[in-house]
Amino acid sequence: MHFIQAKSILSAKNGMNIYRGCTHGCIYCDSRSDCYGFDHRFEDIAVKQNAPELLEDALKRKRKPCMIGTGAMCDPYMHCEESLGYTRKCLEIIDKYDCGVAIQTKSARILRDIDLL
Questions:
Q1: Domain, as residue range, for 27
Q2: Sign for the pseudo-dihedral over CA of 35, 41, 43, 44
Q3: What's the CA gap between 96 and 42, in Å, rounded?
Q4: Which residue among 29, 33, 59, 76 sits deepest, i.e. has the most Cβ atoms within 10 Å of its Cβ?
């Protein structure tokens, strides 16, 4: 795992990936494709340490609430989320701005945030 300062957090269609890379090792995973331009091993998680701040800034500028999707590229509830809590921080911000959220995960760690969901 390593930390990076990201330039943005939301895609044009409001997709959000706090982590870049994954440790699940799914053989069918499209996210491993060379077209995504990983400059590190896929299993070496890049953590966007400024994700909550970037999300807050992006949602402040939205004219109306939106749906935010996460987990399509990298699971937002990998083992590192237990200690980092970035997904929870982002969910709190999403709730603050009355946005909806769609989450894809393989992890039961999502239950930690059931109060926000």
A1: 2-113
A2: negative
A3: 32
A4: 76
